[in-house]
Amino acid sequence: MGLNTANAEEVKVPVAQQGKKNIQVPKRGVSKAYVEKKFGTPTNVEGPVGDPPITKWVYNGYTVYFEYDHVIHAVVHHG
After folding, report:
1. 22 pLDDT band (50/70/90 cuts)?
2. How many DSSP H helices and E strands does the chain contain?
3. Residues 6 or more apart in contact with residue 33 via CB below 8 angstroms
4. pTM of this prediction?
5. Are 54 and 48 contacting, i.e. CB atoms less than 8 angstroms apart?
6. Which of 21, 51, 70, 72 stands the most exposed, by the fewest C-beta atoms within 10 Å?
7. Integer CA distances (angstroms), 51 to 44, 47, 48, 65, in order
């Protein structure tokens, strides 16, 4: 009885490029007022929570995290 074998090509995508979309997000350090003026009102706001206070603004396609009044990170949603 013969064995069937299959060959597959492995594709490696660096984590930093996974799910990358051409979505513009706020840069680190800009204020909440700037983000709201340039990107509009978020669809959802969570927080502030903790010390230092972290607030999360959710937009269609990405989420922005603030420490006090300034952006510390923006994450593009996958899928």
Report:
1. confident
2. 1, 4
3. 69
4. 0.73
5. yes
6. 51
7. 21, 11, 9, 14
